[in-house]
Inverse folding.
């Protein structure tokens, strides 16, 4: 149980860091009106892998990533799962 919970927390931590990095690298956009919401725009997997590899090698990646592969796996999952626009904006528009 304890191990499962630790693994879960570690995963959440990785996801939070990966999301920040993706925003910093311009792969995810942060909604200008809803700072908790990010969405994917126009991105390129090759470019994301290149930046990740370079930054990882320079030791510039914070967070609990055991190796570069783990980092790119989490990044890829985050970006691919991201909505294509801010969910809050979309919801507000639908309520109009
Ligand atoms: Zn928004």
């Amino acid at each position: 149980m304890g191990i499962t919970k630790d693994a879960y927390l570690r995963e959440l931590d990785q996801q939070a860091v990966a999301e920040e990095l993706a925003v910093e690298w311009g792969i995810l956009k942060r909604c200008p009106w809803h700072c908790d919401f990010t969405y994917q725009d126009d991105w390129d997997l090759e470019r994301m892998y290149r930046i990740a590899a370079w930054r990882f090698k320079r030791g510039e990646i914070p967070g609990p990533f055991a190796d570069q592969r783990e980092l790119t796996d989490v990044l890829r999952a985050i970006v691919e799962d991201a909505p294509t626009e801010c969910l809050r904006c979309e919801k507000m528009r639908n309520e109009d």
Summary: The two ends are 46 Å apart (CA to CA).
